[in-house]
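Progress narrative, work stream C.
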Amino acid sequence: MSAALAVKRRTSRDLVTYSRKVFTPLTNLCRNRCAYCGFRREPDEAGAGFMSLEEAMRLVKLGERLGAKEVLVSTGERPEEAYGEARALLKSLGYSSTLEYVVDFEERVLEETANMMPHTNIGVLTKGEMSELKPLNASMGLMLEVASERLMGRGMPHELSPSKHPEARLRVIREAGELKIPFTTGILIGIGETWEERVRSLVEVRKLHEEHGHVQEVIVQSFRPEPGTPMEGWRPPTPVEVAKAVAVARLIFHGEVSVQAPPNLNPEALDLLLLSGLQDWGGVSPLTPDYVNPRYPWPRLSELKGATEGQGFRLRERLPVYPRYVKLGGSFIPEPLRERVYRLTD
């Protein structure tokens, strides 16, 4: 871990960043059935459905008043392909797909706010769909989770989630690079993968970044058991496991890609993560909860600042697109977002 910290100090010096965001989960219906997921709902469950665009825009505008810049746009993946109820709900709202709903929402974000910038993470997309979303997004994302087909086997976490196949997710990351979309991805640790599989997953992302130069950050996300899921009794990774994974990621990516670990999932390990080469805390919301991990609230910014400065680092806010892509400009910054990106960049 000391080697990883040395790389971090040499490349990003004493800076640790975060993004002030609003989380808008437009639907919790999903065609996948990951064994660890506490976010998805069946159509007949309480709370299942689509967030209205009016409610989503209310959150966006309130978040803007609180200083947020990022709108994390999240959905379950293509629920209309699995549920007639989802198709009917979308039709009643005037849409034929979840993607259409997302596009309409993001157009409103850009039309009705001065500072807010969408970051879309709605599952596996085609290259054409990403091309449609690119003009509306400062950046986009999709977790690789793990580059191993083994976890798709019988009784494994991704058995009932066909789009969690690593080839499908690596294709999305590669095609995002071809489209010059600043991209966020990462690994999920603690779901039954081996250390070899963790390293191989990071190396696969590294290869794609070397080819296209578009991966702005890699997340090391900790599995946390959620009540009512098939994996509710599993042991989460220890703080040392998470810190080691952060250190390995830092050594693999050197200073070219930011390494992030969500602070709400590792509240007892902030100091350890900082000393393992972490460069970024990710999105932290002053308004909305982490809908994927609702039992783990975001820390207050004052708490995050105190922990960061306590280890000799400086905490700095960033936009949902990293400064190096702002400097590169051109195709990496879509024309509809250029004015607000450049105006809000230090």
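Work stream C, second folded protein:
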Amino acid sequence: MSRDVSIALMARAPEPGRAKTRLIPRLGATGAARLHAAMTRHALSALAQSGLPATLWCDPDADHSFFAACARDFGVELRSQPQGDLGARMHAVFASADGPLLLMGADCPSIDATLLHACAENLARADAVFLPTADGGYGLIGLARPIPELFVDMPWGTEAVMARTREHLSRLRVEWTEPAQIWDVDTPEDLVRLAATGFVIPPCED
């Protein structure tokens, strides 16, 4: 693999009422939090299998007991997410990197070690790499260097995120690749697809 690529995972502590809020009507606050915890650990397993140097960026901070367990079980470095909106926090993660970096969340269970390696290899020959999601966002962004313009004036949480990102990339003349389209788990309908993969979904408890 050309150049040393590292990977960062941004994750929220699995606290009822704060995690996977769109799924609370289906799973309840506790069930949604447990699903988020399971998906975060699933993502960390993929990172560990990839062998890429990995950091877990924690919200609200790295002192939460869940993150301590993740560090113990998966050997990841813990960092606390900075303040600011999603774009500001993402840019801060890239600004802290010593070299090319892949950044992902825990919402896309189809990201595995093979796909992570493919993204790293793409980043060796392009300025940026993305895994767009079927709902118009993206589940992974990789940058060879920080590009702060990609994180401002963005309609975060909408189906226009990837389209707006492509506009910025074209305007900035950034060379990028999109090796695969993936799907994420944000709505009750997504749970059906998740269950079909064999992922164990916590029962509704609230």
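Residues 23 and 187 are 6 Å apart (CA to CA). No further action is required on this item.
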